[in-house]
């Protein structure tokens, strides 16, 4: 009887200790100007080879990280990249604001003539 109580106590301690060492980083990525969600933004935990993408509401979650400090890299093709230092603990969701970036393309000149050509 005493052995089963000790075994149960050890099992409970192991289960509770795994909850203490696993944490999540979650939040929402939004447009800095409009506050609209940024869909399909990449959120990567640097040096951990893990991450995810935002959903239709701009939400993301990266689960089961060891408790500690991390650098996350947020990118999207239409926005400027952003790096943030965060702590993976049991904390409030992050709100990440991205600023739009504008592509600078080379000038394209189109000319036309009125010469008749038969294309075959």
Largest sheet: 4 strands, antiparallel
Instruction: Report mean pLDDT, rounded to a whole number.
Output: 83
Kindly report how far apart the N and C termini lie.
Answer: 94 Å
Q: What is the succession of H and E elements? A: HEEEEEEE
Number of strands: 7
Structural class: alpha+beta
Please give the radius of gyration in angstroms: 25 Å
Mass-distribution shape: elongated
Strand order of the largest sheet: 3-2-5-6
Name the beta content range.
35-45%
SS summary, helix count = 1
The unreliable regions are: none
What fraction, in percent, of the residue positions are helical? Answer: 10-25%
Q: What descriptors fit this protein?
A:
four-stranded antiparallel β-sheet; three-stranded mixed β-sheet; 120 residues; 42% strand; elongated; 1 helix; alpha+beta
Write the layout of secondary structure elements.
Elements: H1 2-21, E1 22-31, E2 42-45, E3 50-53, E4 59-66, E5 68-76, E6 79-88, E7 94-98
Give a quick summary of the entry:
The chain contains one helix and seven strands; from the N terminus they run αβββββββ. It is an alpha+beta fold.
Describe the structure in your own words:
The chain has about 120 residues and is of the alpha+beta class. The chain contains one helix and seven strands; from the N terminus they run H-E-E-E-E-E-E-E. The longest helix has 20 residues, at about 1-20. The radius of gyration is 25 Å and the shape is elongated.
């Amino acid at each position: 009887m005493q052995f089963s109580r000790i075994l149960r106590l050890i099992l409970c301690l192991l289960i509770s200790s795994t909850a203490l060492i696993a944490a999540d980083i979650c939040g929402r990525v939004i447009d800095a100007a409009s506050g609209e969600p940024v869909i399909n933004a990449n959120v990567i935990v640097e040096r951990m080879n893990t991450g995810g993408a935002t959903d239709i509401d701009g939400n993301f979650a990266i689960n089961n990280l060891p408790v500690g400090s991390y650098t996350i890299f947020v990118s999207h093709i239409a926005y400027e990249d952003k790096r943030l230092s965060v702590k993976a603990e049991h904390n409030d969701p992050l709100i990440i604001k991205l600023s739009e970036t504008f592509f600078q393309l080379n000038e394209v000149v189109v000319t036309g003539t009125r010469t008749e050509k038969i294309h075959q």
